[in-house]
């Protein structure tokens, strides 16, 4: 179980993957009768800056079916990445990989150039900027397996970004 985590005031450069990977899995490598899926909740991520990241795999926040990552707050987050990925990659549906090691490469190329968000409950984002250095054909955000009540205080840019699973009318009152 991982809870009550703060990751703050970090600057990164030239990353191979996006700066954030929050992954809840179910490798279940302990005794079968007492090992269950853990929890990942109450995570605060303020003041993160990342420059010149590779573009193929961005930020990934992914729980697993029936076990969402809960209560995440991301604020004052800036990522500049190389961009230049075709819109075709935006159609990819990453595997769940529930029993795989929690590494960004397990998911393969991502359909979002900013955030891939799956199986989350209570995500708050504010002052988030995603800055591709070259035009990127993928949406900035791809959201899977979530409910309308999951999100609050979304970045204003979300209203004008293309995203597979975002319906503008949901965010009209944000």
Tell me what you see in this structure.
The protein has 174 residues and is mostly beta strands. The chain is 2% helix and 40% strand. It contains 1 helix and 10 strands. The protein has one helix at residues 104-107; strands at 2-6, 10-13, 21-23, 40-53, 59-62, 69-83, 115-118, 120-134, 141-144, 151-152. Strands 1, 2, 4, 6, 8 and 10 form a 6-stranded parallel beta sheet that branches. It has a 4-stranded parallel beta sheet with strand order 3-5-7-9, with no helix packed on it. The chain is globular. Residues 159-174 have low confidence and may be disordered. InterPro entries: Pectin_lyas_fold, Pectin_lyase_fold/virulence.
Helix content: under 10%
Q: Over the alpha carbons, how many angstroms does the gyration radius reach?
A: 16 Å
Measured distance between first and last alpha carbons:
32 Å
How much of the sequence lies in strands comes to 35-45%
Which of globular, elongated, flat, extended, rod-shaped describes the shape?
globular
């Amino acid at each position: 179980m991982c809870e009550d985590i703060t990751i703050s005031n970090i600057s990164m450069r030239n990353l191979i993957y996006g700066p954030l990977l929050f992954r809840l899995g179910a490798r279940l490598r302990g005794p079968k009768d007492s090992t269950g899926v853990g929890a990942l909740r109450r995570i605060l991520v303020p003041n993160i800056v990342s420059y010149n990241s590779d573009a193929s795999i961005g930020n990934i926040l992914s729980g697993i079916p029936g076990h969402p990552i809960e209560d995440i707050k991301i604020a004052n987050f800036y990522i500049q990445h190389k961009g230049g990925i075709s819109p075709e990659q935006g159609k990819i549906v990453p595997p769940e990989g529930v029993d795989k090691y929690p590494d960004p490469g397990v998911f393969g190329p991502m359909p979002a150039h900013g955030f891939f968000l799956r199986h989350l409950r209570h995500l708050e984002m504010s002052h988030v900027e995603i800055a591709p250095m070259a035009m990127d054909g993928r949406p900035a955000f791809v959201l899977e397996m979530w409910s309308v009540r999951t999100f609050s205080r979304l970045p204003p840019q979300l209203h004008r970004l293309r995203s597979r699973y975002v319906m503008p009318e949901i965010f009209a009152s944000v």
